[in-house]
Amino acid sequence: MKTTLREHIAEIVSFSDEEFVYISSHFHYKKMKKNQFIIQAGQQKVNKYFVIKGILKSYYIDKDDREHIIQFAQPDWWITDYNAFFNNKVATINVQCITDCELLYISHDDLEKLSGEFHKMEHFFRVKSNAGYVASQERILTMLNLTAIERFNNFISLYPNLIQSIPKYLIASYIGVSREMLSRLSKNVTNHTK
Length: 194
Description:
Elements: H1 5-10, H2 17-24, E1 28-32, E2 37-39, E3 48-53, E4 56-61, E5 67-73, E6 78-79, H3 82-87, E7 94-97, E8 101-106, H4 108-117, H5 119-145, H6 148-158, H7 168-175, H8 179-193
Antiparallel strand pairs: 1-8, 2-7, 3-6, 3-8, 4-5, 4-7
Helix pairs in contact: 4-5, 6-8, 7-8
């Protein structure tokens, strides 16, 4: 079942119907096709996206043209280039649809406006930002401390719905292994679960 924006916000704070109508007027709907970009490196202004339907990835291209996955986003998750969004900088990462997607987005100005007008919205966005920061820190520590098989198992526990939904090369990029290594890891996990 798809979570609506109101249900998502209500997990943290609540509003009257009238307040929510006003809050929701600051969000805009966007339908995107598989492989389309919502943010591209070099873009001047970016928005923050709430995923209603579909799967997206944010990634960085290094100087050797290698793709490094930073985040996957699925329904009920938020995604953007956070440095570009919060600091009004040029985007350095790409955010692309892995599948057809339905999204709601908000501009930085509208997010700041809502946060100023409603203390509860400021609280909501702070809780979401803190959760994102914690997830990012955990990801860094996972990459630094865990073996390849442990990173793969960690991915499966974090993203159980994605393991069958996205191409394997994206999973390999996310956990920092080659496609061949991912294939071996998958066989090891399959053999241990039989």
